[in-house]
């Protein structure tokens, strides 16, 4: 007798198909959210260099390199974690400290810095005594981008590991690396053994190398960060009285009445209280792009960044802006630093001791600058149909909510 397909079989197949479809959709969604079109190769790389062997383990230097264009790690800094492969422990650290010691009751005399199976390490503050430092340590966990501040785009510490392999063949790589930072989520891959790092002596006359090196790559993912934007964009121009303001509820809607001097106190998806000025968009940061003038061979744009957050200063802030005229056509930036990047993208950031610190909401909670563009090619230059406005705007690596295209200021007269 042939096989019969019963209603139960059909139901099972249907349930399986729904499960498979949901899995594929969720997988593709995560991958899509993790891809950043303005920084497709951006990542944070953790390099683990074993510098010497000890009787029960090794001494290593761990360095966190920030290879992201726009996203830096701000105070209170990074936290690096992992899971040991077996029963390893941390005897001591230099240039960082472990967050928890764990249960070290079986030890007498020399007590390890951490006996936890899954330790976490944080950076030391800037005023740490010199005897407790190593190179590139002790900045409070703050790591700049390589474009803004190359000298401070890495953070290092040293640790002595015990109960581990004592040769290249016996040492086991840690697993399940995690990297957390304020306002950012990172997904870290598995550790991979790479060619040992080579070091040049200060006088440049001697070359040494690590005994063993492995790398871990971590990528920022909006899927892990938040469900709503943290910034929005307003657009205006000299040829139209219309202002295309930030979209309504771009960063969430307030449901509680404003408190004097505090704004709208709510909680974000992580459960942390926030307090921003009560605005229709409810975004902590707004970027205003204003086309100021079109004259001769040049046209000028004003850029204003406003902080609506009562509880936070933004240090080393930056903007990533995509616009076709950024392709080597910026004559000069006034009041801002500028770097031209591929794909019609420009990076803007504040000037130290001038507007490099975007202060919390209030009288000084904004930064301003102007951009002077040149080379108005008649075949491409136009003020019609929103050409003069950015395609995308990022603030500190986060994509900002843009106004709808039909709300853009329009040029109604002939050029």
Automatic annotation (TrEMBL):
It comes from the Eukaryota. Residues 1-34 form the signal peptide. This is COBRA-like protein. Belongs to the COBRA family. GO terms for cellular component: plasma membrane. It comes from Iris pallida. InterPro entries: COB_C, COBRA_pln. Pfam families: COB_C, COBRA. Residues 230-255, 267-409 form the COBRA C-terminal domain. One of its GO terms (biological process) is cellulose microfibril organization. Keywords: Glycoprotein, Signal.
């Amino acid at each position: 007798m042939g096989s019969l397909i019963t209603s139960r079989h059909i139901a099972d197949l249907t349930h399986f198909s729904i499960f498979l479809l949901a899995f594929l959709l969720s997988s593709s969604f995560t991958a899509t959210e993790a891809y950043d079109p303005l920084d497709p190769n951006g990542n944070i790389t953790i390099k683990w260099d074993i510098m010497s062997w000890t009787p029960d383990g090794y001494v290593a230097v761990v360095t966190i390199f920030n290879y992201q264009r726009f996203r830096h790690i701000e105070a209170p800094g990074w936290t690096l974690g992992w899971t040991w492969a077996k029963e390893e422990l941390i005897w001591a650290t230099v240039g960082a400290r472990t967050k928890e010691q764990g249960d070290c009751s079986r030890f007498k005399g020399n007590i390890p810095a951490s006996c936890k199976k899954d330790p976490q390490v944080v950076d030391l503050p800037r005023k740490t005594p010199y005897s407790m430092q190593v190179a590139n340590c002790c900045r409070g966990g703050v790591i700049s981008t390589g474009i803004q501040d190359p000298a401070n785009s890495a953070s290092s510490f040293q640790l002595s590991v015990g109960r581990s392999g004592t040769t290249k063949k016996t040492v086991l790589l840690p697993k399940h690396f995690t990297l957390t930072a304020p306002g950012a989520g990172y997904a870290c891959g598995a550790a991979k053994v790479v060619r040992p790092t080579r070091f040049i002596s200060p006088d440049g006359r001697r070359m040494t190398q690590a005994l063993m090196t492995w790398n871990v790559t971590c990528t920022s993912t909006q899927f892990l960060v938040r469900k709503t934007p943290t910034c929005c964009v307003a657009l205006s121009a000299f040829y139209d009285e219309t202002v295309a303001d930030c979209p309504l509820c771009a960063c969430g809607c307030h449901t509680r009445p404003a408190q004097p001097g505090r704004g709208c106190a709510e909680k974000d998806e992580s459960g942390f209280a926030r307090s921003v000025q009560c605005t229709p968009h409810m975004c902590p940061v707004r970027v205003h792009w204003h086309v100021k003038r079109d004259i001769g061979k040049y046209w000028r744009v004003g850029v204003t960044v406003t902080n609506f957050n009562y509880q936070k200063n933004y240090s080393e802030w930056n903007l990533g802006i995509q616009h076709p005229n950024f392709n080597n056509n910026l004559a000069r930036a006034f009041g801002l630093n500028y770097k031209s990047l591929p794909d019609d993208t420009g990076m803007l950031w504040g000037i130290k001791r001038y507007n490099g610190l975007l202060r919390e909401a209030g009288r000084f909670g904004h930064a301003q600058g102007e951009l002077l563009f040149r080379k108005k090619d008649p075949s491409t230059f136009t003020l019609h149909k929103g050409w003069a406005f950015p395609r995308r705007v990022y603030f500190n690596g986060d994509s900002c909510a843009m106004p709808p295209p039909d709300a853009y200021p329009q040029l109604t007269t002939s050029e």
